[in-house]
# Entry
Amino acid sequence: MPTSAIPTVDLSPFFTAGDDESCRKKCKDLIAEACSDYGFFQIVNHGVPLDLINQAMELSKTFFNYNDEVKRECSSSPDSPLPAGYNKQPDHSPDKNEYLLMFPPESPFNVLPTNPPDFRHRSSKELLRSDGENTENGRSVSPTTTKILEEMFKYFVTTCEILEAIINDCLGLPPNFLKEYNNDRSWDFMVTMRYLPATESENNGITEHEDGNLITIVLQEDIEGLEVCKDGEWIPVIPSKGTLAVNLSDAIQVLSNKKFKSATHRVVRPKGRHRHSYVFFYNLQGDKWVEPLPNFSSAIGVKPKYRGFYYKDYQALRMRNKTHPPSTPEEIIRIAHYEI
# Structure
């Protein structure tokens, strides 16, 4: 049985006005410790409304209950430069899940579903016909149609910006350093996922891995399955109403020269039922150069543990892991590829 538990941090001091610096410092200390020990923590009072979370999860379940033909109506075309919309893991993949991927709301690459009606956003102006009647695909709809996917995306961005500022301070970097370094939000993306029920012979949802971006947020439903590895032990990230899981990713591990960890994690599928989640990836722009910062290497007389690389090159290698699966686990490209 696991002997450790993932820390939970209350972010409310960062959403309240006034001088609450002692509470903010306590939060930062907890996060700094979690980033050093686990690369993973959970947050409450994070700014994402609970009613929006509940609606998003229910609409996700409704969407994935449609048959494959309906779901594939919002798949991107084979020649699309980015895999937006609905996708399902191929039968030969060890990962057993299907997902809907969304880039920032203004992205021209998004392919969002029209059903359930409240899942995607159509602006009131777009819905309003010249005769004053509001329609979508021939149906009468309210001009206040809930913008669930876009609202979730925007709230996740805001929460990540707060986390980024906290991590910046935890690392002792100059004010706003990470914000200025990572100032392009066009590469962020969000997926809503459904994992198939486990079988008698296997239960892999997502194979153990680290994320390649900066910060990842996970919204789980009330079903366990997400696990993080610490010292060879797999620790469950226990879901709780209104709680979000946060993991640091490879870019932070490289920038900090391993001061903070990129968490190794996996998803184990439950028996007898599907499992749903939302995952938000707070990304770097592809042309960004990533290497250990002097603050954690040359400036303190420590050798860099990684050679530098362009973020887009690393992402291309990670994508090749999926499109051309290696024959052995040892051949999978991970951040260790750049280790010195």
